[in-house]
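Reading a protein record of the kind used here takes little practice once its layout is understood. The reader may check this reading against the record printed directly beneath this paragraph.
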Amino acid sequence: MSLRPVLYAIDQQNVPGCGSESCVKAVMLVGTPAMWWLAVPVLGYLTWRALVRRDWRYAVVLTGYCAGWLPWFADIDRQMYFFYAATMAPFLVMGITLICGDILYPHRRGGHYRPGQSSERRTLGLIAVSCYVALVVTNFTWLFPVLTGLPITQQTWNMEIWLPSWR
């Protein structure tokens, strides 16, 4: 869930380029919270669709995600750093995409669209999915300076650190 990112480098002394007296240049590996914080509900929905609805697409995505996650339970005392989650990220994105598809096309069976969906329901689904995608893009854009090491003000750096575990 991206609760403990990895801080690769930080420079807070004599950093030019942010238009302020006090600049910070940091490189931190942190996932986009708008995606990673939904990991548990996404995994729950994927499991439900795979086991109860017997949808193979959800089972494939769930298997890929768990292949990167479950081996860590073999040695529970070992600390898992966030960069190990890189193998799970594509499967999380695929799971979110499948769920967005269910929101947009709720009457789909076996991957095929069935007519009869109300235009109001379709519009609401399109608005919900569009707002979520806009939130993810905005969230990534906000975090981009700390993902790439661009100089930012100390105040912006403080706003980038959302959780105490991110310090």
